[in-house]
Each structure stands twice: as C-alpha cells, then as structure tokens.
Amino acid sequence: MVKVKFLGHAAFYIEGSKKILIDPFLNGNPQAAAKPEDFRDVDLILVTHAHGDHLGDAGEIAKLSGAKVVAMYDIANYISEKYRGVETVGMNYGPTEVDGVKIVQVPAWHSSSDGKYSIGNACGYIVEIDGVKIYHAGDTFVFRDMELFAELYGPIDVALLPIGGHFTMGPKEAAKAVELLKPKYVVPMHYNTWPPIAADPEEFKKLVGEKAKVVILKPGEELEL
C-alpha cells in the first residue's frame, strides 16, 4: 500500500517502501499539517522549483533526516551550497532511479528563482514506488506534452494538480490536464493558501466529471493506493 498525504499548498508526503516528501513548504505555510521535525525518517525530498513556497524546508529536513534532495541540477547545486552536508541528486528532464524509486523529471511551464535570481527551470515529477505512479505537476499551466507523459509513463495512478490560477492552472485548465494525463485519481493542490489563488475544488471536480475520480483532501488527509 502507498499513502499520499496532503500537507497543504503543494506539499505531499508519500509513504510506501520509501518515505518521500515533495515541495515541503511547512514553516510559513498557513495550511501546513506538519512541521519539519516530523520528518526525521524521510528518505527522499523532491523539489519542483526554487520558489520559497516549494523549496520550503527541504534543506532543513534533509539535515534532520539525512534524506537525499532531488532537484533540477542548478537547484541541487544551490541547495548544496546553502545547506552544507546535504546530499543532493541534480538532474534534468528525463528518467533516473534513486534508492529503488523510479523518478522522471518532466517539464513545467513556470519560473524558478530564489526571489531575486533565476535558478534552474521548473519541473514536475512522475514517481513510481511499489508499482504506483504519482505525477506531481509542480507549478504549471496546462500544455499538450502532458499527453506525452501519459503515453510514455502511464497509466498514472494519481495526478496532483494545481488549480489556484494566477500563478498556475485554474480549474478549467486543470480539467483539461486531466483529459490529457488520463489518471485514475486526481488531487487538487496549490489553491486557497492566499487570496490570489482562491479557487473552488468542487468546481474543478464538476469540470473533470467522469474523466477521473477527484479526491479533495484537506491538509493532513491522505489517499491510500
């Protein structure tokens, strides 16, 4: 069994034979359902881009746990310099395997910076653990290549998609992404953290219709696969 827990905003905890965090923005996150110190036994941390609400507490948690941080090559170097002693796996768009976990880093349409300087490119991840395939889109707009992700790496069991608009897809665009990706389950994320990304997940669910099962998780809730 693989569990996918929503930690608020775009942060998720995946628990199977390995324990994985994606975009662990916890300190400063008004939705956060956990603290960095809750993850002293995590194995891998995946970062989609360098914005503070995604890079978040990755370095701190890696220091606490000894977890490896997987990120775009440039972002991995940034983390290594900022958090001495943290082991990073720098990669670029494409497949790899880290400690038995299959990972594909895929493009995302978004910027990436530390708030001042551009760092690397934004990405999403398709993670396969214990036979379960999970797509975390990161921050992105919908684009036709999502259809290629499904063709190459599907079937996708669950897609974690932003729906908040302003910086990412809104409900309408995310529903189109579902059509392209063809996942079994969809979990909306990156909405209602702050006013600019206010969105109604029920509207998203209605737009998706029968294309996939939409699971609306509150921070702290999980989906079992």
TrEMBL record:
Q: Which UniProt keywords apply?
A: Hydrolase
Q: Which GO terms describe its molecular function?
A: hydrolase activity
**SMART domains reported in the protein's UniProt record:** Lactamase_B
Source domain of life: Archaea
Q: Which InterPro entries match?
A: Metallo-B-lactamas (IPR001279), RibonucZ/Hydroxyglut_hydro (IPR036866), UPF0173 (IPR022877), UPF0173_UPF0282_UlaG_hydrolase (IPR050114)
User: Which stretches make up the Metallo-beta-lactamase domain?
Assistant: 8-190
UniProt xrefs under SUPFAM superfamilies: Metallo-hydrolase/oxidoreductase (SSF56281)
What HAMAP family does the record point to?
UPF0173
Q: Which family does it belong to?
A: Belongs to the UPF0173 family.
Quote the protein name from its UniProt record.
UPF0173 metal-dependent hydrolase P8X34_02305
Organism encoding this protein: Pyrococcus kukulkanii
